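explain this chain.
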Amino acid sequence: MVKDPITIDPDEPVEQARRLFRINRIGGIPVVDNGKLVGIITLVDLKKVRTGKTFSTKVKEAMTKDPYVGHPNDTLATLHDVMSRKAVGRIPVVSDDGSLLGLVSFNDLKDVSRLHALRVTAGGAGEVSRLACPSCGHGLPMPVSRFVKCEYCGTTSFLKV
């Protein structure tokens, strides 16, 4: 989790968000008002703003309101599962009072997804001995991305935590 993510005020112009994306090479910014998370603005949200309107449109008009949020006690597996199911690239982590604590991006979790899921354990010891195809049970090659293809049956699987 990034503990002090770049944030933006809801009353800032969308052009300021665009600058922050470009300068920091990021794809999403939590929108914070008086220390509380009120939304998130992403590159997808920016694409919805008509060309030429980025100086007059406020972030609060373009942001995703009520994004899915994580909590400090959520597991990485839970956050990864939500990102996969909801097709979101980042989840703000908030405290019980709604204060922003950090931001978890899919890139933060990609190393975890390479090492977990579709696993066959050795003698119940909890060690990963090999990845197994969910369709035919044959061993899978060590993945280099979130997708891995079974060389035996051709099934492509998405690795989850």
In short: Residues 117-129 have pLDDT under 50 and may be disordered. Strands lie at 28-33, 36-42, 64-65, 90-94, 100-105, 119-121, 128-132, 139-140, 147-149, 156-158. The CA atoms of residues 84 and 109 lie 11 Å apart. The first strand starts at residue 28 and ends at 33.
